[in-house]
Amino acid sequence: MSWAQIAIDGLALGAAYALVALGFVLILNAAGAVNFAQGDLVMAGGFAAIALASALPLDALPVPGLVLAPLVALCGGGAGWIVAEIAYRPLRHRPPVAVFIATIAVGIVLQHGANGIFGAAERRTPPLVSGDAVVVGGLTLSLQTLAIVATAAIVILLLHRLLERTQLGRRLRAAAEDPEMARALGIPVRRLTALAFALGAGLAALAGLLLANVYFVTPTAGLAFMLKAYIAVTIGGWGSLRGAVAGAFLVALFEVAAGRLFSASLADALLYAALLLALLFRPEGLFGEAAGRRA
Amino acid sequence: MKTVLFLAALAALHAAAAARAQERVHLPLLVPITGALALEGQSERDGALLALDPPAAAGDAARPLRPSHAVFDTGSNPQVAVQAFERAMAAEIRPRAMLGPIDGNSMLALLPLAEREKVALLSVSGTARLTELGNAYIFRFFPSDVVVKAAQARYAVEELQRRKIALVYQNTAYGQSGNEQLGRWIESLGAAVVYRNSVPVTTKELSGVIAQVRDSGADAVLLQLHSGSSALFLKQAARAGLALPIVGGSALHQPSTAALLEPAELKGVCAETASAPAADPGLAGFARTFRERMKSEPDAFALAAFDAVNAALAAARMPGPLAENLAKLRHAGLAMTYESDGKGNMAHDAIIVCYDGTSRTPRIAKRYARPHEAARR
Amino acid sequence: MSGRARIAAAGAAPLWLAAAAAVAMLAAAAGAYELRLLAIAGCYALAVLGYQFIFGRVGALSLAQGAFFGLGAYASALLALKLGWDFARSFPAAIALAVALAAVVGATVLRLASHYFALATLAVAELMHILVIEWVSLTGGGNGLPNVPGFVLFGWAVPRGWPVTAFVWAFAALGIALAANYSRSLYADGARLLRAEPLAAAAAGIDAAGRRLAAFLLSAAFGAAGGALYVHTLGVVSPEAMQFDVMVLILCMAVIGGRNAVAGAIVGALLLVHLPEWFRALEGWRYLAYGAGLLLVIVAAPEGIAGAVEAPWRRRLGTPAAPSGRTPIPDAAVPAARAAPFAEDRAILAVQGLAIAFGGNRALAGVTLFVRPGEILGLIGPNGSGKTTLLNLLSGFHRPDAGRIFLDGRDATRDPAWRRARAGIARSFQHGALAGDLTALDNVALAACGIRARAADVFRLPGRDAKRRRARDAALSALAKAGAAGAAHTMGADLAPAERRRVELARALVAEPRVILLDEPAAGLSDAEKAALRSALREIAARGIAIVVVDHGMPFLIPLASRVVCLDAGRVIAAGAPAEVVADPEVRRAYLGAGAVL
């Protein structure tokens, strides 16, 4: 297998990780707290897609997953809104660690809800587009892989435009940066924070749909996604959206490349060893903090 | 034949042995229905429940034995398993037997407790270690890894005529126990392990592993992976065009694993197991009832638990301590005939199932009676 | 001491009684199952007590506590199985191993800031987890190690059942005693300030790195102790004892119980071990109920159960009184400056060509100035001119890109903040940086201690009470001098803004500094209060202490300062007598042109 193939595999994996990590940062910036349920929201997105697929007549469609994608993202968004209302809002004036624990609890509920409803078997979501792999110059490009990368790229671009170019995006950022000031300016901080949760969870659910076709999903899968997103966000620079995307691709490419060179267990160990080294030489992430610390 | 046996087993719960008064037998089911091994644990629970909770259609004849049960989640964790054991022992009717969790490490934690409390511990775990510790209270109704790995290795070496084996195993108790046994059998059969890789459950992209297998020059792949990783390996191997025969561990016979794959991706793939209730025409009766009651496909773990519970109930009907009865019982179960080897191994046979690439239901390619004894010779 | 005060001083006494009663009640009615759960909770309680040192008190999110727990379990089990050691030897050895590992890890990763520290500890924990899985020949791999013996001490095996549970809880009680002792120590007060206001802590002479390391080592020791007890209670060890779920469980126990209350660790461990067991009847759904229960508890008691129980108790009793109500206020309330071994005209603090940039933004571009003992130097300049940045450089919070800082003729440019504090630079902050959960008195007293902290201060050993008493006496006189004696027993969080400034001034004074840096000390004060502050500052300066005051309010500063330096865009544009500087045309253009009123 050539390195070009590895790069493509890493790109697809990285695209999905990037969605998870972006959602993580959106919520992090809005709530000032880590959403530990982010990985379980990915898992829940996968199962939501499975439930929707069995309820809808999708088999005849050439693009079953693409039809599902907006629905799944919407379900995820709704779940995010609920998380904001039950796990964040009652605790917003409390230490961030209280929100952290509340989201751990939400993650447990999601995991065991899925286990109770769907059982513990691995499941698979419908493909984004049905069709076989194309072989181009010795590279196997599965249509699914291409569709994942394309979908993630479009969503990331849309999100970028939303945050940078629209009034809503500016307000979202203002509410995240200084809620008191934003409130004084008449910005509805509460609704915008809930919206950030909804966006973050929607991205997670979408990632769940993309990942679960290629890599399957099981109720216990959340923690691994959570750890990957957490690593991506931290090495990318805590709180930085660009950093999160870069970190996600870096983690995915490392994972795939190390998995090609070494045993899979050793690849896991090397990821953590590399992280330690990176932190020792770049103690504030590879790309620096989003906001410089001032005394 | 198997159907008849199955019906007989169900009927046995209701009629027979009228000589003894209605004796209550309490059988706690200690099963990991949450956590990492919940898939296997849920199968195990469902098989046991089918044996304990016969359908109303079977009639309400006077039963000499009144079995009762309770389900205790062991959370795929030895600590939780030990807590479940103590809780189960506190029941109103003192249990004389329990179904133990499928994860070997939880079983290892329960063995000393079972010995102390003199409770027969029924097991469907394959971990070889369990019956090597001299414990008189373990009764394993799923063939040990010593047995099934012998069948898996013999199929690859003797039937498929392969000499250079790549071994890909999960970095869990299940994978490591299988890896150890497979390595031993492959070498004793005159073949060589040319490649080994230990795969975490969380590793999703296995294309690197597959490329390494190809580079190693292996002529067959033996897998000892859980359901999800098994399916990932087959899917990605098919995509990468890996044209080597693959013989998997028992996870590969599970209908839930095959459901993740297209039939074409399964072409030529084989797997060892104790039984294949969803595919074996001889077990159609069991499979039908199981599907009706449990709304899912039965696998070998479910059938092993079903047989184990029936054997325990048979032993309970005999006079004397239940564990001693089990040790000398010869039980004609649905999957096979069970009999202790003196160490608590009750199951000694294995089968190999293979997929032909047209459906997700495999056919039985070979039956091995005591494959480990033949291989040793 | 009044009875009320004595109860309050005992802190979480009611919680203790409740917890002891609960344990006794459970043990009395217990069968093997209840005893088993209690014993397991005791093991986790120790790990949580340990976690409170690093996470609760110092506020560093370590994700390695689960790994230390697992390490203790594996180490004790391996020593027992492979070398035949009894518990009396394997237990201390397991703890020593964990502490040694924590020292290596701590020395390298403790300097990382919050999330990066968390990620680094996570990486260490995951590496250890992978190691125990893959090193099959030593650890048994995924299957782990069966048949770990029970507790054996010098040939005596602790009988199973309640003796084992009692044995575990005896260690837990020892851990509780140590942690409770710590929480009343000088160190713990410093940790509170460190967590709430790290910069203020450094300015009070508290060596943050040293304290974080001490807390990390303690947490590892307690974690390994819990794990070692756990493995002999359970009889097996497998990678499940070291996986991330254990870390999450310990974290939840700490937060649910109460991050800083010793009783919180016990309540958290007991509750979260029992909670999933209460829902056993739900079979496969039971962890769903557990998760929902966890959510309810954290929403109902965000500061932890111990916090929720303590809060109304505190309110009823009023704020805790000082241990000694009759501390005499010394006549000479202002501490004398240390005998000055330098000439009057020699600068105590001097900087040369100081420059620093933040992300390309030049905050200071070559500042040179000095201050003599007994002098009050006013630092003025428009917003963003670099005044506070200069103070931060003087305090040692940032390291300059260029330039040097001399303290009493010695180059102190590379000294960390706490060391400069100990060398005699004290300071106040714009926003009044106090620990909210300490009284004003203790906020000031801990600065007196911080300057002369010793490792032995970690625990409240005999003789340390006298030290604390002396610190409180000094604090009381400093408060009196700063005009805040009346607020001595008010909690930091409850102080009015003007009081906060006075308390901060007192904290600066108590360390017997040679230079005091004050950042806008008069902001928000009434005219009368300003006048009082001015005379207090003059009196301090008269003792030979140099004072640097940053302030916007010219009417406050001009009559006070002996000299004034004006900064603009990171440069000194004028320096000299107040009247001269104010009259300087460049100053007028840069600063007064902006509309400020003289």
Written overview of the protein:
The complex is a heterotrimer of chains A (295), B (377) and C (598). Chain A is mainly alpha-helical and 295 residues long. Chain A contains 11 helices and 2 strands; from the N terminus they run ααααββααααααα. In chain A, helix 2 (38-55) crosses helix 3. The termini of chain A are far apart. Residues 290-295 of chain A have low confidence and may be disordered. The two termini of chain B are 32 Å apart. Chain B contains 13 helices and 14 strands. Chain B folds into 2 domains: 2-144 and 280-348, Response regulator (Rossmann fold, 3-Layer(aba) Sandwich); 146-278 and 351-376, Response regulator (Rossmann fold). In chain B, helix 11 packs across helix 12. Chain B is of the alpha/beta class. In chain B, helix 9 links the parallel strand 9 (246-248) and strand 10. Chain C is of the alpha/beta class. Chain C folds into 2 domains: 3-316, ABC transporter involved in vitamin B12 uptake, BtuC (Orthogonal Bundle); 333-424 and 513-592, Rossmann fold (3-Layer(aba) Sandwich). In chain C, 55% of the residues lie in helices and 11% in strands. Chain C has helices at residues 3-9, 13-28, 32-57, 65-82, 87-109, 114-134, 136-139, 162-183, 186-196, 198-203, 208-234, 244-257, 262-278, 286-300, 305-317, 387-395, 417-422, 440-450, 464-481, 497-510, 527-542, 554-557, 578-583, 585-590, and strands at residues 152-153, 156-157, 349-358, 361-371, 376-380, 402-407, 410-411, 425-427, 515-519, 546-550, 563-568, 571-576. In chain C, the strands form 3 sheets. A 6-stranded mixed sheet of chain C has the order 8-9-10-5-11-12, with helices on both faces. The longest helix of chain C is centred in the middle third of the chain and has 27 residues, at 208-234. The chains are: A mainly alpha (295), B alpha/beta (377), C alpha/beta (598).
